[in-house]
Model the fold of this input.
Amino acid sequence: MGATKKILGIRIMRDRQEKKLWLSQERCVKRVLQRFQMENAKALNTPLVTHFKLCSKQTPSNETEKSDMQRVPYASVVGSLMYAMVCTRPDDMIPLAHFE
Done:
């Protein structure tokens, strides 16, 4: 059957010559972004810069803004991305381990 290439949606890549192994959930993360219409979101190294502060002035101030916020399934977005983060890191390709 050969070497495993995918398990539980996680792609497995090997470089036997360099003795490296990578795991990727790129497709999973792309599907989550598409599901929540976020595929054109700007990528950042961290979700919030360290000097960014949240305050009550940033909350919805009128009924239109409040109804717009209620349509966004924040818990589902965070939960879906947390799954990818816990199983692997969400980077495209991460050197996981060197094996002998």
Summary: The radius of gyration is 19 Å. Strands lie at 6-7, 10-15, 20-24, 94-98. The first strand starts at residue 6 and ends at 7. Residues 10 and 87 are 8 Å apart (CA to CA).
